[in-house]
Amino acid sequence: MERKIEVLLWSIALPSFSQLLNGKYIKGIIFIFLEFIINIYSNFNEIILMSFNGNIHQAIETANYQWLMFYPCLYFFGMWDAFKDAGGGKIKFSFVPFVFLAYFVTLGCIYSPKFKLFGIVLGPVWLSLISVIPGFIIGMVFRKILLFITR
Question: Which alpha helices (DSSP H) does the chain contain, by range?
């Protein structure tokens, strides 16, 4: 169990770290390459800095959404892949919460220029981060429904 938690935590830092930890070097290098390409073309580091410094509208203007929308799927697939390679994923439909995290964070990214929470535009970083909560909850509920249906 400790190993599964370790790889999930390293995946949060950077998707490719856990693949490297798991000895999946080619896969890890591919993830690093994809991470850097998407990061550079989406201007992700810049929009993170702008968002953390309160420059939300500037972050929205700087973001290349055509590239940024790839990031959540890469990120959560990288987490799932590392978790599975570390011995996780043996429970039926354990991938479902990861999939819903990718869906909801992508939706958060898509709607981030316009969506307001309490009258405040949160931008691509904060709305995407907040989207993790409903994504995880709905993913867990959907997993339970699939488990119930397939009994």
Answer: 2-13, 15-21, 25-42, 44-52, 56-62, 65-68, 71-85, 96-111, 123-130, 132-149
In this predicted structure, the answer to whether residue 1 has a pLDDT above a threshold of 80 is: no
Select from 5, 32, 3 the least CA-distant residue to 17: 32
Structural domain total, the chain: 1
Does pLDDT of 139 surpass 80?
Answer: yes
Phi, psi of 69 (to 5 degrees): -70, -20
What does DSSP assign to residue 134? Answer: H
Exposure pattern of 60-95 as b/e (b: 16+ CB <10 Å)? bebbeeebbbbbbbbbbbbbbbbbbbbebbeeebeb
Say what the pLDDT of residue 17 is: 84
Residue whose tokens read 């981060």: 129
Range of the domain at 26: 2-149
Angle (nearest 5°) at CA 126 between 123 and 130: 125
Instruction: Output phi, psi for 91, to 5 deg.
Output: -80, 135
Residues 63, 68: Cα–Cα separation, whole Å: 7
Q: What is the reported pTM?
A: 0.88
